[in-house]
Amino acid sequence: MGQVRRQNVFNTIGAAIKFATFWVMVVIQLPIIFLLPRGKASVWYMGIFMRILLVLAGIKIRVHGKLSSHRPLLVISNHISIFEIATFPVAFGGSFIAKKEMESWPLVGWVSRKFGVIFIDRRPSHAIEALKQVQETVSKVSYPMFLFPEGTTTNGSYVKQFKSTLFNFVENSDVLVQPMVMNYRYRDGGVISDEDLAEHFGYFSNEKQDMGPLCSRERSAFGQVFHIMMLGGFMVELTVLPSPNLDGMNRKQIAETLYKEISDKYMKLKNIKCSD
Fold it and tell me: Among 156, 198, 210, 254, whose CB has the most other CB atoms within 10 angstroms?
């Protein structure tokens, strides 16, 4: 049975070396990313870029099921931390639909745009224009697009209700929506308690939490990467579910249907050791 690794000076030094190595690799790859044309090639390269982070952070991936070959394909998942952004492209290829704020992050925004990420402004006054752009992009690409309809990360003890406005462009379209459940495990597949998920593995703001335990401190995105490197990593278990029949449903019904499937499956799996 896995457990949180006790932190000491050796773990800290090891994490510092890994963290420095990651940034060296980022600098080395920037010219390659700059030269890559936006599109399928750059999206494919995101998997290589993210695999380096996963290796250095000690992240393992276990996948159950397969994504549909249908295109356009929108994959819906729950969201706990920034590591989903690294594990999904490595496991499946594809890119993301993300919140507009990320586009202004130094370096991250530029790299994300090169990697095919679509940024949407969720303010009501901009929603129609933003979702129209999403619909146009998703309908053209030959790879899956991933969306976190909770609109934020959680502490891992539950799945937050989905935002229905994000499904406006799915109504009466040929976009196939496939739900996927994402669980965090110890590297040996063991169950991580809600308390340890919140304290060590989740990445969220305590102010936004309405269920489960809170962590005693907040970390930045890169602070979370460093912390996971100190812990020696963990396993991301991805369970792909069948695509439900959404014909004739409006956005609210779509959001509720997908939420129930993912939430129910997540709560069922989160206390079960990962199996091969």
Answer: 156
